[in-house]
Amino acid sequence: MGTAKIPALLCLLAGVVLALAVNPAHGAKTRHYDFFITETNYTRLCHEKSILTVNGQLPGPTIYARKGDLVIVNVHNNGNKNITIHWHGVDQPRNPWSDGPEFITQCPIQPGGNFTYQVILFEEEGTLWWHAHSDFDRATVHGAIVIHPKRGTTFPFKKPDKEIPVILGEWWNDDVEHVLEEAKRTGGDVEPSDANTINGQPGDMFPCSRDDTLKLAVQQGNTYLLRIINAGLTNNMFFAVAGHRLTVVGIDARYTKSLTVDYIMIAPGQTMDVLLDANLTLGSNSRYYMAVRTFITLPVDTIPFNNSTATAIVEYTDSAAARPVVGPPEFPVVLPAIKDEDAAMAFLKQLRSLGNQDHPVHVPTQVDEHMLINIGINFLPCDATNATNSSCKGPQGNRLAASLNNVSFESPAIDVLDAYYYGSGRGVYEEDFPNKPAVIVNLTGDSGGGPLLTKRGTKVKVLEYGTVVEVVFQDLSGENHPMHLHGFAFYVVGRGSGKFDERRDPATYNLVDPPFQNTVYVPKSGWAAIRFRADNPGVWFMHCHFGRHVVWGMDTVFIVQDGKTPQAQMLPRPPNMPKC
């Protein structure tokens, strides 16, 4: 499988060809950014430590563009470790070379090296984000992508008075690299974070944090577009603003029907565009907490987790509304409890695509390839070379692992995209990722005798160009999962509790106006169904967006073959790809 190796002369010309091929559409622009990966000292929760940042910022710089633009980002790695950057939710049509996941579409950028990404904004409009796609680096290496409508067009809602990126994250007092390496060494779970954050700050309920709490100044009568991003490694989050309702108008850079709610639930990897109307008639208080609380579902209550609530302050500052500060800000009593699964599902069930003339819905009705993918938390032997070693901290002295259809993904030593492009995939990956699970198990993820042993493998799924795919994700692990697909947005046509019934459940699908997303929430011991058309040739990663699950192997790869016309074929390989 793959493309014949191109001659050396053509390789030299490939950069020119690529640049011509990705020129922005008429009226659009090419925008340039420089990202410098650096180690920077930051203090949170009374602890100072060195973290990886872009341009010394936490969160990193926001990319601003319009629909149809080409964004050129030159990443200079001045840090102390290998790194890659992913443009989360950007489809990158025909251009997997700039997608970013380590050892999937590129070798990492080594310290002292640099790589120029070409980020093609084609259909996306709204809020996306960028983040490191190597190890746990995205904990601090992340930022927003704001994509405005094409020039001459506008939002499908009243233009806001101001737009505010709101990035939800997590903070570890320990070095995140050490957290990851310790989990790998022991085979146990990952140490939970010490705080949730809003734009890098935990808020005034945490020690040494009051003076740096994020404050958002608003004026009475104005409307604010909150561009909310969950950049966390481990936590779903509930979000609310005291005294105010929120109107959701977009998810994952695709517009939705307006949905006015008291709170939202946003999973790691997801973005939401939310309108906040500063419409209160104020009495003695002009300050209101914006609050973010962990939402978690776990198979057992003994697993430790971050149960914190981060806060920022929304403060009315216009002269008519301003009041002397008396007492603490009002707290949003509507914020659901940490384990309130019903509240999460009640919110998600209301999301619908906008579906108007300018933003139509095109749900595929005929499916070519049906896939049922079991999501599992499993174990591997503690020591592959010594079967008697049971000293790991996973189940029964084994090593924790994760899988899709009982295959725990193992990253190769060279990237999958290069191996496919040069026709050298044999020995790098296997083209036999299963369409359905080989072992029937119950919804606790076992066959009656505890967690399942799994096996490592670099298995991929090959699709012909234009294939309509339906994937049903079935959770067997006893916790929820945010499943993210690179290279595509997909329609979330169904979701339910319990075991998916292929005879009954498709009748409940929404094929009229389902939300169009790149990251889908799969409920605990339940299922979610997505559909997409495989019309983007290349190599595309699919994985859970919980950081520890990616490391444990809850991943696979779709390879979409070239179509017959030039516009249905992958762009040539840039000559400056990093080397492994």
From TrEMBL:
One example GO MF annotation: copper ion binding
> In the record's cofactor note, how is the cofactor described as bound?
Binds 4 Cu cations per monomer.
EC number(s) per UniProt? 1.10.3.2
Secretion signal: which residues? 1-27
Q: What does this protein do?
A: Lignin degradation and detoxification of lignin-derived products.
Where the record annotates domain Plastocyanin-like, the positions are: 37-151, 163-317, 435-563
Give the protein's recorded name. Laccase
Q: Per the annotation, which location comes first and is thus the protein's main one?
A: secreted
The entry's cellular-component GO terms read: apoplast
What keywords were assigned to this record? Apoplast, Copper, Lignin degradation, Metal-binding, Oxidoreductase, Repeat, Secreted, Signal
